[in-house]
Amino acid sequence: MTNSWNDIKNADVILIMGGNAAEAHPCGFKWVVEAKAHNGAKLVVVDPRFTRSAAVADFYAPIRPGTDIAFLSGVMRYLLGAGKIQQEYVKAFTNAGYIVKEGFKFEDGLFAGYDEAKKNYVDRSTWDYEFDEQGMAKVDDTLQHPRCVINLLKTHVDRYTPEMVERICGTPKDKFLKVCELIASTSTGDRSMTSMYALGWTQHTTGAQNIRSMAMIQLLLGNIGIPGGGVNALRGHSNVQGITDLALLSTSTPGYLVLPTDREATYADYMKSRRFKPQRPGQTSFWQNYEKFFVSQQKSFFGAAATKDNDWAYDYLPKFDVPYDALKIIDVMAAGQMNGLFCQGMNIMMAGPNKTKIRNGLSKLKWLVSIDPLETETARFWENHGEFNDVDPKSIQTEVFQLPATAFAEEEGSATNSSRLIQWHWKAAEGPGESRGDIQIISDLRARLRALYAKEGGAFPDPILNLAWNYSDPGNPDPAEVLKDINGYALEDVPDPADPAKLLLRAGQLLPTFGVMRDDGKTSGGCWIYTGVYTEAGNMAQRRNASDPTGKGVYPNWGFSWPANRRILYNRASADAAGKPWSERKKYMWWNGSKWTGPDVPDYAPTVPPDKAVGPFIMNQEGTARLFARTGMPDGPFPEHYEAMDAFIANPLHPKVSRNPVVRVFAADAKSFGTPDKFPIVATTYRLTEHFHYWTKNAHANAVLQPELFVEMGERLAKAKGIQSGDWVEVTSQRGSIKAKAAVTKRIRPIMVDGKPCDIVGVPIHYGFIGLTRKAHPVNTLTPPVGDVSAQTPEFKAFLVDVKKTTPPAQAAATA
Amino acid sequence: MGITRRQFMRVSAAGLAASTVGALGFGDAGDALAAGVRPFKLERATETRNACPYCAVSCGVLIYSLGDRSKNARSEVIHVEGDPDHPVNRGTLCPRGAAVLDFVRSPNRLKYPMHRKAGSDKFERVSWDFAMDRIARLMKDDRDKNFVAKNRDGVTVNRWVSTGFFGTSSQSNEAGYLTYKLARATGILGLENQARI
Ligand code: SF4
Q: Start and end of every Molybdopterin oxidoreductase domain (chain A) (predicted)?
């Protein structure tokens, strides 16, 4: 989230699209209710289903799954056409006036530089600004230049007329226009809109561009950096934010640094392409500090073994040739090229797309280690569960370990919620039996592996032998010590550059902020954005001061919000170019004549005056936010509507490039996609209030509340197929088929798409062949093995199926 | 004197610590009443602040357990409720969080390390030592055999791609950091979590 759960109460309009907070994040949703009750906020919900979020909305509009970009581009067209943008904000804080290179174009669904054979944009050189001799981007402050960003954007979205939106999305024109109107009402400086989204936007081949579209709308409206504004990812698991920050991601290192690639043979090469210089005068371009963060991190990883002479142990890190994201791991595994796999609290057989491919892959492993508090389908993939997991154990040669882990109540440590808020939790009890904490399991594994390498030698043992594990109990480190390690500390005395007689940091001192990190090896720190969480003043994640001095929902002394305890990111933008609040209502951070002040921590040094024109978007080289993404997105600098891989219609905008042109399809999956002649119904997956992923099917109360898999469908479809609620139906996609009970509701209604009726079915994800719920076919039997072109998040939210009435599964019949 | 719910809770907590409902200010009458009712089940419980393990709202919870956390004493979770002081959830929990005790006490919680041999149709209980020694051995054998020190162009790449690691986004930051350190030190590239699936 750019903002926070509590901040939602400051919103005037709340758009829930690509999520369903009332059911999936109920206790966060209370701040929506608060905004409605006490701030006069209007709730707008756009969703294929009439969800419980929709049920309490002021306005609901239906949409066909997988068409959000068309809808949002239509909104942008409306805002630009009606002049409903916050002009001054857009000029000051976005790249609207930046002049784009000649040669940039968009034609027939493709941006400049596409290579048909490689299915990729091989030449993205025109996806950038024109620069002057000093390397500064050229800007037309009058916004008149035909190639300045805002004019290119106007042209780009001009095709998304309300009629086109209706044709693609199935949203009736009048409903679409009503949503536009409500959104547009926040283009003034005294009103704001918040966007709340989750997997409904990410789980598409166009996932990242869905979110970008909303970010662009929020920038046009001046809603970023403002109370009650922002682009707010509600997120899934309790610590998915923290584990992302700490980079359990194939191409990252903690704090959003990037793992080296094969093209960066030397440390010098690596640093050359990372230390971004400002491209507008006086801008922060915070990544200039990359080396300080990187060197401090290497010191935290490898201690004394990381020296200037060995380039801070640069070669201890693996370099990547291609990204090994989850879909790639699965593909490699299914091709028989992977021997070992760890699944720590990850039920990949359920969580990945295309169960059949995953199970085949697991069967080809030599060994699998599952570390989990619960039984999982993954740990038992080799076990025969009748038609729900029809395998022959004898034929599966994978050696499997199932290690019992403790759960939240049985361990202490910090976790980061979706508001970037790091909070500590304490241990209440012992885990069952011989279960152990993840910290102990990992530490034990490290000790044994290290002992083997110390004794026997082997392939490049150096990083394993030198891996720093300087904790009082290396076999089971105290989480507080690990958090200190993440926060960072001085390894030597660091003199004050202003007065060498004084010390800036003394050896051993915990770092108060990432601003003091060094690139000379004198500081250590695992994840720069977390610096400040554990200082000499104590463990900030443990703070529990529930006061909110300004009443704006900031709670500055509750836990620690990264970075630097900032609660709203880009809050510099809550004041105009001169540093004056946009309005009394939305007053947040402002220039008081000598410094930036307000309830939050400013984006940069509080004494930098507004006339220096330092932009709030400190991570960008320009200091402004990007309406035009430059080369940052693999599928283009502007979002464009592409059909899902299982395309329901030919893309009316450019039928020859119907689907995202840079989608990665593995050779093994070439025939995995369905067409509407065979599979005429659009399907989406979703989550139930009573269940969390694949865990709660193991919890009694949840299993009682929602005991079995169903498929939700509208009345028209049910009637056409002769199906009644409670009937068994077979749902089939190009990938496979499942059986489920029918739930016929009024919540999903057919819509008209491109002149033809479109029926939609929804399938909840939570059921499998393990648990206290009734055994079921995993829903990912149906879903396509393909991901978002940016993040490789699987396309779970839009695919094609057919349904028909059927007989109960054998096992269900036996127990009925 | 007006008393807020929170003050009441604090006073009550003090009362519970003193193990007498009389501390609520009911005097002798309170003592008599206390003698006549079944003791409040949380009276002897230890209260611990934690967070709901499910979604990323991360609602604050209070966990009540029996046992005083002294060494060698096993404590048992008997009740979980929303933390009324928490700024986000203010004491509320959704149907998942409200039932979280059933996750803690699920019959499907794992208790012992288990091992399934190639081709077998069952798990068999093993010791931690057996499991961890064997896993370390399997890791090392695969890494030594398949480690790629240099790519075809002679660039040092030091990667190990024949083993993958799916980490969990339900573990603490501290456990996650150690997981990261170990996985990357071995050269594993296939390292992911639930963030994007
Ligand atoms: S109680 Fe519900 S809303 Fe709160 S963190 Fe748990 S799952 Fe999320």
A: 1-381
What is the model's pLDDT at position A488? Answer: 98
| Ligand 1 environment, Cβ below 6 A | A 25-27; B 52, 54-55, 57-59, 89, 93-94, 96-97
CA of A28 to the centre of ligand 1 (A): 8
Strands, E assignment, B52-180: 60-66, 76-82, 114-116, 124-125, 148-150, 156-159, 163-166
Q: Centre a 10 Å sphere on the Cβ of residue A154 and count the other Cβ atoms it contains.
A: 13
Residue nearest atom 1 of ligand 1, based on CA coordinates: B97
Domain B46-105 class in CATH? alpha beta
> Distances from the Cα of A78 to the Cαs of A60, A189, A614, A642, B128, in angstroms?
18, 19, 31, 20, 63
Tokens, residue A680: 């005429």
Asked if residue A393 lies in contact with residue B116, where contact means CB atoms within 8 angstroms, the answer is: no
Examine the pLDDT at A257 and tell me if it is beyond 70. yes
Closest atom of ligand 1 to CA, residue B94: 2
Give the start-end residues of each E strand in A616-724.
681-686, 710-714
Closest-approach residue (CA) in chain A for B163: A340
Torsion angles phi and psi, residue A17, rounded to 5: -150, 130
Distance CA A293, CA B36 (A): 64
Tokens of A666: 């593995």
Q: Which residues of A touch B163 (CB under 8 A)?
A: 338-342
Supply the DSSP string of A654-682, one letter for each residue.
-GGG-B-TT----GGGTT----TTT--EE
- C-alpha A133/C-alpha A603 separation (Å) is 29
Measured from the Cα of B55, ligand 1's closest atom is: 8
Q: Which residue is closest to B53 within chain A, CA to CA?
A: A238
Q: Name B113's Cβ contacts closer than 8 Å, sequence gap at least 6.
A: A401, A402, A403, A404, A434, B125, B126, B127, B128, B130, B131
Q: Which residues 6+ apart lie within 8 Å of B172 measured at CB?
A: A239, A242, A411, A412, A413, A414, A415, A425, A438, A439, A479
> Is residue A712 over pLDDT 70?
yes
Beta bridge partners of A728: A741
Cα(B81) to ligand 1 centroid in Å equals: 11
From the list B48, B87, B121, which residue is nearest A426 (CB)? B48
Atom of ligand 1 minimally distant from the CA of B98 = 1
Compare CB distances from B111 to A240, A432, A772 and report the shortest one's residue: A432
**Domains within chain A, CATH numbers bracketed:** 326-409+430-464 (3.40.50.740), 655-805 (2.40.40.20)
Gap from CA of B100 to ligand 1 centroid (Å): 10
Q: Which of B97, B121, B158 sits opposite A318 (nearest CB)?
A: B158
Average pLDDT over residues A37-45: 98
The CA-atom distances, in angstroms, between A621 and each of A135, A206, A339, A574 are: 11, 25, 42, 20
Per-residue pLDDT tens digits for A487-503: 999 999 999 988 989 99
The distance from CA A97 to its chain's CA centroid, rounded to whole angstroms, is: 29
pLDDT band at A812 (very low <50, low <70, confident <90, very high): low
Q: What pLDDT, in 10s, does the model give residues A291-324?
A: 999 999 999 999 999 999 999 999 999 999 999 9
